[in-house]
Amino acid sequence: MDEHGGPVATAAPAVPHPRRRRVDPRLIAAGVLVVLLALGAGVMLVLRGHPLTVDGRYVTDPAAVLADADRRFADYVDQRAGARGPQSRCWFQLIDPDGSEIARELRCGPVLFVGGDPARSWLRFPLTATPAGGDVRLRPAGLPTDPDPQALDDAGLLFHPDGASPPSGSAGLRVPEVPRAEPGYTAVGPFPTLSWTAPAGPARLAGPAAAVTVTGLATPDVVGSGDAARRPAEGQRFLAVRFTVEPGEGRSATPPALSYQVPGAAPVPVAPALVAPGSTVEAVVAVPADATQADLVVLDDGLEQRLSLVDGAPGPGNVQVLARTQRTAEVGASRETDALFSAPGRVPATFPVTVRLDAATLQWFAGPDGSVRPRDPARAYLVLDVTMALPEGEPGAVPVDLLTLVLPDGTRRPGVDLTRSADRVLAAFDVPAGFTTGEVAVRGRATFPDGVTADLGADGVRFPVTIPAG
């Protein structure tokens, strides 16, 4: 205290000021840059999630790539009427489970198609890479590299940005049922998986231009395979037929018109390109489930004939003899006998004669120009190449009045002249189209156009004639 009792002022101790050092601005800038780079790298890692690379370059927006692929994958599956489920989508495939490099194709699945295998339910969709700055942008293809799904060989390599794992197996998917065909469905083969059955009986017809033979029949539950497989529409069934087309009788150069016909339905034409000699055609036709009749119809130069699609049988109106492949007997035989010749105003005289039968042929297009037809499709003309000659004379025609055909049951058929001419003879017999054997007798009495009568007696000469069936 001072003398007056007040406090005594004292001076505060002096605090020394530290010396301030000037900071180099370049150091500050470098520090900021380091911090920014660190922050940028952290942000990029956050934005990229798990980074993916192609050829060492980062993939831009992998989630968008997969979203686009999912749409394309779904469209493709729907177009093929395939089966996919809630877990069906696309995934990247890593080259190394611990790396970031991915393959240039996605794995998409599970999916199953008609005729598929649940153990093989994954498709591969290629990826196209284009530069995007220093990164790469990927675009999935609209179609897989192979339409047939494959097994998922290494699920551990699949990656999705949302961290999900791929489903196991086919995720419970079932193979889709074969689609039903439209009513009246038809299809042209070949059908290599069909099991064909040969017709039990004759299944052939022939016409002026073409001959058609059914060689196989089937009633498949399903035709085709994969996406093309079809089963019949409700209330229908499939009939399958295989037939060949060969040259016909050589009487027309115009190809026939073929069609498939079911009673009550419009005919289905066979493509003209298939109707050529040497062709084999396989076809499937849908018919009502209770149909008992369906035909392959051949219209050939005005002649309509049919073969059944059910059993291959020829139609009742077919020309039966044309269906045969065996129609000629090569006889090549001569017989000698005596004949009594007489004429008005002349003395009768007996001379030896030689009768020769070279061949006998079953014909439908008969006569000199092929215009003579038997009276119905179940019959034919057995046309003879037969002559008679006097000693040292030229062979000449045999009058049909001297000709008789004796059938195995004893039936006798008289000879007929197909020329309808006074000075020419074309001898024949009207016989069943199924004729196989008989005996040609040259005997009795007949008058030639010049008025001379020849009498070979009751016995004359005989020639057995045999044509194999079929």
Summarize the structure in short.
With 470 residues, the chain is mainly beta. Helix content is 9%, strand content 35%.
How is this structure best described in words?
This protein has 470 residues and is mainly beta. It has three domains: 106 residues, no CATH class; 133 residues, Immunoglobulin-like (Sandwich); 139 residues. The protein has two helices and 28 strands. The strands form six sheets. Strands 17, 18, 19, 20, 23, 24, 26 and 27 form an eight-stranded antiparallel beta sheet that branches. Strand 19 and strand 20 form a beta hairpin. The N terminus is likely disordered.
Mean pLDDT equals 89
- Main sheet: strands, sense, barrel: 8 strands, antiparallel
Q: What class would the helix/strand composition place it in?
A: mainly beta
Radius of gyration computed on alpha carbons: 48 Å
Strand content: 25-35%
